[in-house]
Amino acid sequence: MSNIYFRIVKLNKKGWVLLFIKPLKIPCHILKTMALDRRIPVSHPHKEFITQRASNLYSGYKGEKALEYYLNFLPEDQFFIFHYLRLPDKYGHFQMDFLILSMYFHLIIEVKNFYDNISFDEFGQSFRIKAEEVQVFNNPVEQVSLQHNRFVDWNRCNDFPAVPVEKVVIYSRDDIYLRNLTNNKLITDLVMHRDKLLPKIQLFMGKHKTLRLTEKQLMEMSYKLLEQHTPEKFLLIDQLGITADQLVKGVECPECGNIPMKWSVGQWECFYCGKVSKTAHRLALADYALLNQKYINNRQAREFLQVNSVHSMRRLFHREKFSHVGVSSGRKYELSVEKLLDE
């Protein structure tokens, strides 16, 4: 287990209080899909599919991100919060957007981020009508119920005491209209906007008063969850048969999105809109790390960034203060995706 998952909230009489044990962080497979979308040419036969896939994945993450504000109001000495847990079981793997643990009950949250009104009909379907076309989606109640059953089994198989497990479906946008066409009580109880989450958790707290786990057992479960978490693999390149030579090289303009920019006198210049930037290469290097490998040498960087000068590339690396291994022509620089995308 890596300690980077733990966010320290404050020190109280009991010791360190941990609220977000696995805090919100955009999963790597989403970052890689977005990088592939930036690097696949418009003419590629799979471009439209990749763009839609990247958009859907990032939209889902933004919906989950929108819940962070509300979760910060939970009592920090009572709940452990996990974002994006993907756990193994006898059927393969199952993934939960959020899992909240306490010594009294647990809660699974399935998050949906849609931009149109959503209706639930008598057949249990969720759908929206867009441009007079009916679009049907997987029923999120059935989805979170399956996650519930698999997590209960996971809990039992790992020899933890039985604890009540609650579940909800949260629509992260406040401006969509949710319609329960048949007044299905299950939908009324489980499906809600994000501003209803905290009152719902208060109801669960009032409902579950019996202590089910000790603090030690709660920590043991947290360690086990992190230990078994298995991030989703990025298989899109192999599935679509995409080769490295098909990817677009060069630095993307942060203003107009065109590639490539030209490196000149210590900065990047866009041929198309005239934008200049001293840091536009960081996104390109992040793309390289996501789609190739995290180490890069001078020649590889020049080829990918479309820079001609060995010395210019060396000065750029020196300015960025990247960690490196090796010396002289064998030197390789370590590309930290998190650092490159944060700056």
Summarize the structure.
The chain is 36% helix and 24% strand. The chain is of the alpha+beta class and 343 residues long.
**Terminus-to-terminus distance:** 27 Å
How confident overall, as mean pLDDT?
A: 89
Number of helices: 12
Strand content: 15-25%
Reading the helices and strands in chain order gives EEEHHHEEEEEEHEEHEHHHEEEHEHHEEH
- Residue stretches low in confidence (pLDDT < 50, at least 5 long) are 1-18
The count of DSSP E runs of length 2 or more, i.e. the number of strands, is 18
Order of neighbouring strands in the sheet with most strands: 3-4-5-6-10-12
What can be said about the biggest beta sheet? 6 strands, mixed
Kindly name the structural category. alpha+beta
Q: Which percent range fits the helix content? A: 25-40%
Morphology = globular
Taking all Cα atoms into account, the compactness measure Rg is 24 Å
Description:
This protein is α+β, with helices and mostly antiparallel strands and 343 residues long. The protein is 36% helix and 24% strand. It has 12 helices and 18 strands. It has helices spanning 28-39, 47-65, 68-71, 140-157, 185-190, 197-207, 215-228, 236-240, 281-291, 298-305, 310-320, 337-342, and strands at 8-12, 15-18, 20-22, 80-89, 92-101, 106-112, 118-120, 126-130, 133-137, 165-171, 178-180, 191-193, 261-264, 267-270, 276-277, 295-296, 324-325, 332-334. The strands form 5 sheets. It has a 6-stranded mixed β-sheet. The protein has a 4-stranded mixed β-sheet with strand order 9-8-7-11, with no helix packed on it. A 3-stranded antiparallel β-sheet has the order 13-14-15, with no helix packed on it. Strand 7 and strand 8 (126-130) form a beta hairpin. Helix 1 (28-39) runs antiparallel to helix 2 and helix 1 crosses helix 9 (281-291). The protein is globular.
